[in-house]
TrEMBL record:
Keyword Transcription regulation: no
InterPro entries xref list: ZrgA-like (IPR021253)
Keyword annotations of the record: Signal
Position of the signal peptide: 1-20
UniProt protein name: DUF2796 domain-containing protein
Composition skew (Basic and acidic residues), residue ranges: 128-142
Region of interest (Disordered), residue spans: 111-142
Pfam families per the UniProt record, alphabetical: ZrgA (PF10986)
Amino acid sequence: MRRLLLALPFALLPLAIAHAADEHDHEHEHGSLGAHEHGVGRLNAVLDGQALELELDSPAMNLVGFEHLATTAADKAKVAAARKQLENPVALFNLPKSAGCVVSTQELNSPLFGDKPEVDHDDDDDDHDAKDGAHEHHHDHSEIHAHYQFTCATPTALSNLDLSQVFKTFPATQKIQVQLIGPSGQQGVEATAQAATLKF
């Protein structure tokens, strides 16, 4: 299952390259394929037998409204509220009760949660070396990463992936770039609040 998820970016690389070419003139100063763009999240979703794996990456701005470390009580409350929402993925991803999905593993990471410290707002774009070597993205942007593995008793009940609750919970998220592998094959789609339901 893990190998399947790791192969996903390579399987959809032509789509990502085409999308990157379309977005080339975007205001974003970094030219990487997984560019940090406010309002845009990324989701990898794999349904393989009874196993469902979801991996969500989002700029912290989309989920909490800022990217700096929380120092005020108000900012800390926003981070805690977002984390609480992310800790309930069955509700957040609107998984149907009939599918009988239970979380087998869940991992949330972000510098805002006190994980993997990164340099605060480093202005030198040429300095891309993370202090712990684990971060792939740049120091001047905070991301929130959520990785979930579910075991679903009745995976046939998962004909769709409904992201409407993600958009309602985190309204600063305008679109989610989804790479999806399911029984009907693989696809790359862009979900929005108006088009939030994807077919597996």
